[in-house]
């Protein structure tokens, strides 16, 4: 069922509904189905991977990391829009066309406005979380030449990502409040000239949202760069450590190239190291 049909049905119903109830009805349907389908998709692939590989299965870790990124992105979006709708209800009511949902009363009721702002925050950020998580996983893809970082190292980068997005939002929010973003649209210049919709607050919120998106993009680029840089460093340290020891026996090779040795790169297999060493016995 589409949003428009839902709103129409609510508006024409003979049952008396409050604005809060209307906001809840508008918020739930499509989001519920998307979340269900997304979780079912991840669960199915994780199950297939577990059936095929047992304890060696890794897809569930990847999917859990992506879901964590989505959850953090959604939380950021909700908090960001709760704050910004308190700064400028006009930005959401007129700029996001919530008048269609919230009705002609201006300013709109506080609770329905915040519910709709939460919905906008969710819809604007959940897919960004997917992109961020997938891009970081791609940067950490298994490679015969570079060691793969543990997932804890990827998770450790998420606070920095959020911080970069928040700093970008703050900088552009101030830029918008000073009308330094008015060059982007004739509508912005008209708002300032006519003092319509509390233009300083309106442009502050616009700048916060724009800065959050740009900061998120910068944070993603930084995360990818830092992952690749750390992989190069760890791999280099592993090669130096491995080459510093004398040629070992076959039994020692297996022990030293096991996963418990964190600095030896995946490319340094017993077979490869054996090929570089002179023939010897296991004695």
- Sheet of most strands: none
- For this structure, the quaternary state is single chain
Low-confidence stretches: 1-28, 239-248, 256-283
Give the percentage of residues in beta strands: under 5%
Radius of gyration: 26 Å
Helical stretch count? Answer: 13
Secondary structural class: mainly alpha
List the helices and strands in order: HHHHHHHHHHHHH
Average pLDDT level = 75
Fraction of residues in helices? over 70%
Shape: flat
Number of strands: 0
Ends apart, CA distance between termini: 74 Å
Number of domains: 1
Describe the structure.
The protein has 283 residues and is mainly alpha-helical. The chain has one domain. The chain has 13 helices and no strands. The chain is flat, with a radius of gyration of 26 Å.
